[in-house]
Request: fold
Amino acid sequence: MGLYHSVQAVAGAGGDGPIDWSAVADAAKAATDTGDLTVETPERDGYATDVRDARNRVREVGQLEFDLPETVEIQNRHHWIDANVATFSRVMEPIEQQAEYIPGIARMVNTGSMAVALSFLGNNVLGQYDPVLLADNDAHALYFVRPNIHRVADQLNVERDRFRRWIAFHEVTHAAEFGAAPWLSDHLETAMEDAIDNLTDGSIDRATLGELDTTMTAVEGYAELLMDRAFDDEYDDLRRKVDERRQGRGPIASLMRRLLGLGMKRQQYERGKAFFDTVADARGVAAAGRVWDSPDTLPTEDEIETPTLWIDRVDP
Reply:
């Protein structure tokens, strides 16, 4: 019945724009099992303890000043889909505003494609730090998708509490980056808006897209550095098992990962981590955090590949 209702929601897509976001939400949720969200007090306290400990450790190791987002939510899959439909619709709005008349069949295809993407992600995302880009406010958020955390922990044969703590530390490292660099959200928003404006004009701004990729490589790489230095337990087995699980996905899941650019995100992790490991080994973790002083101290593409260039330029 879920697939039937999902197709029905897409078939009923309406409105004047290229995507019916209400139908996207309905279709994605119809195709996605909600997942259990019966959280007893000990587990809820466990999430709070993990997030608090992660904040304290990251502050200490990174020598960063930051606060956690006011919104920290334990979610089911439908909650996550709703939150990210709002994000996707904000990002796509400038392009939608430029669109001329959209035939019904094209609207259905666009709506269906977005629903498939959000359903896939909703079934796989474990945690998310959401900087809430392109919104009218600066209220960031931290999400934990409990059904996915439990399912993956069981699949990997690891303790749920330990796996949850690992996810909490990873997401808090992202909160640390954006908290320590209040300019970072505006920097990303400006680059995104410039890229979108060029797309609506029918051109691709490769320089801006390259800058976005380099910035996100720094974001992902620094998070990996803090995870390595701040997490208060061994986790090589967790990373190895997660990587093996990713490589062992079926052909459909592998295709979805490629279409959604998740392979590129893994490359950002790896390239960024290599850059920050080199800087931290040479000058210390606090010195590596100098990338967040200002947009001018972000590494360039060449500096990502050759960290000594960044060290010579910034002298952290």
Remarks:
- The first helix runs from residue 2 to 11.
- The radius of gyration is 20 Å.
- The first strand starts at residue 71 and ends at 75.
- The mean pLDDT is 81.
